[in-house]
Amino acid sequence: MRAYKSLPNVILQQLANNQQVKVIILVNEPTEEEQEATEAKQEVAQAKRKAEQLAERLRQLGVNPDELDELL
C-alpha cells in the first residue's frame, strides 16, 4: 500500500481537519469471455498474416493463389 501526504484540493476541501482517509482504486479487468474474444481475434489476425505470406511466396514461385483449388 502506498501512502500519500497530500490530496488534490477538491478532495481536501470536503474533509474535516486531520481526518484520515483511505482511498481504493478499482481497475476493470476483462472478463473471461472478453479475454477469449481478444485471443481469438489475435489468432485470426495471425492466421491472416500467415495466409498473406504464403500467397506472396506462391506468387514468387509462379503459382496464382486464386487458382489453388484447381491444383488440389
Can you describe what's shown?
- The protein has 72 residues and is mainly alpha-helical.
- The longest helix is centred in the middle third of the chain and has 29 residues, at 32-60.
- It starts with 8 loop residues before the first helix and ends with a helix.
- 51% of the residues lie in helices and 0% in strands.
- It has helices at residues 9-12, 32-60, 68-71.
- The protein is built from 3 helices and no strands.
- The protein is rod-shaped, with a radius of gyration of 28 Å.
- The mean pLDDT is 85.
- The chain has one domain.
Q: What is the helix fraction of residues, given as a range?
A: 40-55%
Instruction: Count the beta strands.
Output: 0
Q: Report the end-to-end length measured between terminal Cα atoms.
A: 63 Å
| H-E string | HHH
How many domains, in number, for the residues? 1
Q: Average pLDDT value?
A: 85
Question: How does the major sheet shape up?
Answer: none
How much of the residues is beta strand, in percent? under 5%
Radius of gyration: 28 Å
Low-confidence sequence ranges: none
Counting helices, strands and paired strands, the structural category is mainly alpha
The number of helices is 3
Shape: rod-shaped
Keywords:
72 residues
Topology:
Elements (H helix, E strand, L loop, with lengths): L8 H4 L19 H29 L7 H4 L1
Short account of what is shown:
The chain has 72 residues and is mainly alpha-helical.
